Amino acid sequence: MGSLVTALASFCDIKQRGGLWFVRIDDIDPQRADPKGLEHIKKSLMAHGLSGDGPMDLQSHRQADYASARDRLADFCYFCNCSRKQLQGMSIYPGSCRHKRAFTADHAVRIEVDDERRLFLDQYKGECAFVASEHFGDFTIWRRDNLVTYHLATAYDDGLRHSHVLRGDDLFEMTAPQLYLMEKLGLRPPEYTHIPVLTFADGTKLSKQTHAPALSIMKPEVNLRNALRFLGQQPPNEQFTVGQWLEWAIRHWRLEAIPHTLAPFSQSDHQ
């Protein structure tokens, strides 16, 4: 249900503006990629009428593009072979490998950040500020196993392809480093909106790791109505079809109606 809530909010927000909605799958790590999970996502989106305005975008198919973006950042980057054990307990990377500017095999690539204060506007949270060196420090853009990181892949795709991004508040902390990368790549950042995520009563986010039940697609109309209720949109007590629910949701969509804390998920909400 948590993914449906966020996807529906994103869909309604851009559709009410008359824009196009695209679906992207962050499958950049082959060890964690789950073909069955991808198939379930496709079936779930289709059942709930949330079809994208173009082919589903798989980041695993774009490694060459991300490698090109990495190379464009070379003047700001260095190579790092610090282990997790060495960095344990550190919230900000100390810059131990900043002197390693020449290519070195079996090293990750880090980008060096600065002390400038930057501002950005979140359509739900308001004006936000960050200082890269204080908030996240030098971070990894390319892994030592020769895979792109989430930060670089997402920053490149969002800055190159999208004008609006609505996602869960659990990804808000990712925004600042991604904006930093877009700036260095000369890309125009999208308009960001981060909304609260659905949680259990104890505040734990719904996810596979927290054993959240998989969303059934047997009653998509009920799921859509429940999702709209979580989003504070006050759906009517009607027996709509999937298409009618989406039409109603787009027409009545109000970002400002989303509560700052969503009502907790319970088993009674699971269909």
Description:
Helices cover 35% and strands 14% of the residues. The protein is of the alpha/beta class and 271 residues long. The chain has 2 domains: 1-59 and 196-271, HUPs (Rossmann fold), CATH 3.40.50.620; 62-195, 3-Layer(aba) Sandwich (Rossmann fold). A 3-stranded antiparallel beta sheet has the order 3-4-7. A two-stranded parallel ribbon has the order 1-2. The relative contact order is 0.17.
Rg: 20 Å
Structural class: alpha/beta
Q: Name the poorly predicted regions.
A: none
**Proportion in β-strands:** 5-15%
How many beta-strand elements?
9
**In CATH, what is the homologous superfamily of the largest domain?**
HUPs
Largest sheet: 3 strands, antiparallel
When the domains are counted, the total is 2
What is the CATH-assigned architecture of the largest domain? 3-Layer(aba) Sandwich
N-to-C SSE series? HEHEHEHEEEHEHEHEHH
- The residue-averaged pLDDT reads 91
**Which topology of the largest domain does CATH recognise?**
Rossmann fold
Reading off the top of the CATH hierarchy, the class of the largest domain is best stated as Alpha Beta
The amount of helix comes to 25-40%
Observed structural traits:
two-stranded parallel sheet; 9 strands; 35% helix; Rossmann fold; three-stranded antiparallel β-sheet
Describe this structure in a few short sentences.
The protein is of the alpha/beta class and 271 residues long.
